[in-house]
Design brief:
Chain lengths: 301, 300
């Protein structure tokens, strides 16, 4: 029990997973998100129209169509977290081989990784994301979700690859690495059997922290109403509008942001708090893993 | 050091060219009415792309302009100059503020790391960095609107328009600098020059501010470019929420991310390129300072 951050982080993650997978099946959650267009009081004398105020039926109130806000939040958890994990995973799947290829600190891959890392550091990731995601090929094309995942992963691939390169370079000076090399092992064997196990603890820690970073970036995009999936449909005569097609937290943020101009704070806090919960979970988890691995490596010595 | 400076300048040039290529990507739609519905399609053509380039380059080299904006009578360079000046005032103020407060907090964090107030140091820094910036701004606006309604947080001019964004923008950098400062002070612990200074009978405060901090400055300055990137993305969210007429918000308006027409009708490539250029100049300066300070600390 000495590693408190790991326990707290693990508990928070367990709760998150519970909400993601079991949440929609809970009795008080409206899984289908069906709108309730009007509501009578007990003796059918008074009619109320949505949005409903927070009550026993709608703990967080409802939106203008009468959909329960709490249900929206819970149903959206799964797609949000899975999306963020997908972006981070794609990023690491590209960055780890790149970093391993560049370990000798010279050659083509190394110069590409360092230069591109610097090129992408001239503007914040948020600006790059907004610029690239508004590109018409992505805006109107098919498979938008896949393209968005790839682009968001790509923006910071070289930063991650650079970090991995630095670590592998450091590892390559360890005595056991020289032993492996002098045994005449193939590059593949060295990478899988020697570099990866030594790299894995740092990878796990950085992965957790990166999940938090991606969550923040995606949340900021949601605030700017840049949705991850949308449809372009005709909403009025000769007027088309991008209609958000998913129920993730980012779109809830985007949809409720304008409420603050009418001083109607309320629901807009909850998706933001949920995003903070995810960031906090993975940050604490990363810190917990850091302590776990550093204690284990100290114990070995 | 010189090769590193040339590399930075070369890469920034490359980044700028790439950016221009991305921004000038053709975005017009072919909209037609088919039956009773509207039909919009996007077709990419190299011809349009080349045409966009030609117009832009012609504007820069022959007419010395970045092109028109969505508002009649205002050129893109005028819009860029106006908004960048607004934003720079905020950035510089909050940078100075966060440097001062951040270093003080860093020293406090370091000195309190073995006391009972430990949680005030490391924990707050760490917890604060987990709060998304938009949540913080939401809470701030909610508090002001409900309890201090006489403060105009949506002001576009006057001291309120400048003070509040600066304060908000300085929060995250302060914590960032605090963390770097306390880490770099901890790294200096037990070095010989500190022992010499203490043996000379100098007071603890004097050793800290005159000796240790002087040596830490180069480490802190070497994080400058990361700090500015952080501040700029923060700036966009702050300006977007408070309707501040600054460059980051203008950049987003120029991208014209419209829910009705995508990035189309009012897209202003000149404004985007101009503002990105100004931000990049800021970041290149920050990177050069980083390189110089690294070089300086390496010599010692």
């Amino acid at each position: 029990m000495r590693n408190i951050p790991l326990w707290i982080g693990g508990t928070m993650l367990a709760f998150l997973l519970f909400v993601m997978f079991a949440g929609p099946h809970l009795p008080f959650v409206n899984k289908e998100l069906t709108p309730e267009k009007h509501r009578w009081n007990a003796d059918r004398t008074k009619l109320t129209m949505p949005p409903y105020k927070p009550s026993a039926i709608n703990p967080l109130g409802s939106d203008k169509a009468g959909v329960d806000n709490l249900s929206k939040l819970i149903v959206g958890a799964k797609s949000t977290v899975l999306f963020v994990l997908a972006v981070t995973l794609v990023r690491y799947l590209i960055a780890v081989p790149l970093g391993l290829l560049a370990r000798k600190q010279k050659g083509f891959t190394y110069s590409v990784v360092t230069s591109m890392n610097q090129v992408f550091s001239y503007l914040p990731a948020l600006f790059f994301a907004a610029l690239l995601l508004s590109n018409p090929l992505i805006q109107y094309g098919d498979y938008r979700l896949l393209k968005v995942i790839t682009i968001l992963a790509f923006i910071e691939v070289f930063r991650v690859a650079y970090v991995i390169q630095q670590q592998t370079h450091q590892i390559s000076y360890e005595p056991y690495m020289e032993a492996g090399a002098s045994l005449g092992l193939s590059n593949k064997r060295l990478a899988v059997g020697y570099y990866m196990p030594a790299l894995l603890p740092e990878l796990i820690i950085n992965f957790c922290i990166d999940v938090g970073k991606v969550m923040l970036l995606v949340g900021q995009l949601g605030v700017l109403s840049i949705f991850l999936t949308h449809d372009w449909v005709e909403v009025e005569v000769y007027t088309k509008k991008f209609i958000n097609t998913s129920t993730d937290w980012m779109s809830l943020l985007g949809a409720h942001r304008k409420d603050i101009y009418h001083n109607k704070f309320g629901f807009v806090f909850f998706p933001a708090l949920a995003i903070m919960y995810v960031i906090l979970t993975f940050n604490i988890l990363g810190e917990g893993f850091r302590r776990y691995f550093s204690r284990r490596s100290n114990a070995k010595v | 050091m010189r090769s590193q400076i040339y590399k930075t300048l070369g890469l920034s040039l490359f980044a700028m060219v790439m950016l221009i290529l991305v921004v000038l990507f053709p975005r017009d739609l072919d909209i037609s009415v088919v039956g009773y519905g509207i039909h919009a399609e996007y077709h990419f053509s190299w011809e349009k792309y080349a045409n966009n380039m030609k117009t832009f380059l012609h504007g820069i080299f022959y007419e010395q302009t970045l092109g028109p904006t969505r508002y009649e009578g205002e050129t893109a360079e005028a819009a860029v100059a106006r908004t960048v000046m607004n934003s720079m005032a905020v950035i510089v103020t909050s940078f100075v503020l966060s440097m001062g407060l951040g270093i003080l907090k860093g020293i406090f964090d370091y000195q309190s790391s073995d006391r009972k107030t430990k949680w005030l140091g490391g924990m707050t820094t760490w917890l604060f960095q987990s709060i998304p910036d938009f949540l913080l701004i939401l809470i701030y606006q909610w508090i002001i609107l409900n309890y201090f309604p006489f403060i105009h947080i949506f002001a576009e001019e006057g001291w309120e328009a400048w003070v509040f964004p600066s304060l908000l923008l300085s929060i995250y950098p302060t914590f960032y600098i605090a963390r770097i400062t306390s880490a770099s002070i901890a790294a200096q612990e037990g070095l010989l020059y500190i022992k010499v200074a203490q043996a000379k009978g100098l007071s603890r405060t004097r050793v800290m501010y005159k000796h240790v901090l002087k040596n830490c400055m180069s480490t802190i300055l070497s994080h400058l470019s990361a700090l500015f990137v952080y501040m700029l993305s923060n700036l966009l969210i702050i300006e977007y929420f408070s309707n501040f007429p600054g460059a980051a918000n203008r950049l987003f308006i120029a991208i014209d991310y419209d829910l009705y027409f995508g990035a189309g009708a009012n897209y202003e490539p000149g404004v985007i390129i101009g503002i990105c250029f100004c931000f990049m100049v800021l970041l290149v300066i920050a990177q050069l300072v980083s390189i110089l300070s690294k070089y300086k600390s390496g010599l010692r």
